Amino acid sequence: MAGRPGQQSLSTEAQVIRALRSYTRAMDSYVQAMGRGHELHRTDLSALAVVMDATSRGEQVTPRNLARAVRISPSAMSALLDRLEQAGHLTRRPHPDDRRSIVVDITDSALATGGAIFGPVGRATAAVMGQYSEEQLQLVARFLDQVAEVTEQLAADPSAPPSR
């Protein structure tokens, strides 16, 4: 973090918080710009990421679960699914265990679009990670996982005390 104005006078914790804010702003700006270029809203990209991650874990995603995950109303989720299905990024099929529900699946088109959007930032991030040891990266990964977990908990219940 050397070289950033004002960093030397900050505590390590304050430097980490500043770096997290800076990364969040930079990534939000990147996602906004790239999403616009592919005619996708931020919520569309969030929904696609949720479906992609769940699919990679072998889980099925229903519209209700997806609406909860991206924190939008069921009616907004219907519009989002219609938009993404029309664009060829998602498909809907009957739920195998619940006749009243459907399952949302990601398409190859969405995976290709995700690669086009996130491939460049992934490669740039990999280049930065190449400057650190495996042990250092494991520490960063644990830290970021824990920060993400407590942030998700606070998003669900802002009055809840941190669990860590």
TrEMBL record:
It comes from Nocardioides panacihumi. Gene3D superfamilies: Winged helix-like DNA-binding domain superfamily/Winged helix DNA-binding domain. This is HTH marR-type domain-containing protein. InterPro entries: HTH_MarR-typ (IPR000835), MarR/SlyA-like (IPR039422), Tscrpt_reg_MarR-type_CS (IPR023187), WH-like_DNA-bd_sf (IPR036388), WH_DNA-bd_sf (IPR036390). Residues 13-149 form the HTH marR-type domain. SUPFAM superfamilies: Winged helix' DNA-binding domain (SSF46785). Keywords: DNA-binding, Transcription, Transcription regulation. It holds the Pfam family MarR_2. The keyword NAD does not apply. The keyword Cell wall biogenesis/degradation does not apply. Signal peptide: none annotated. SMART domains: HTH_MARR.
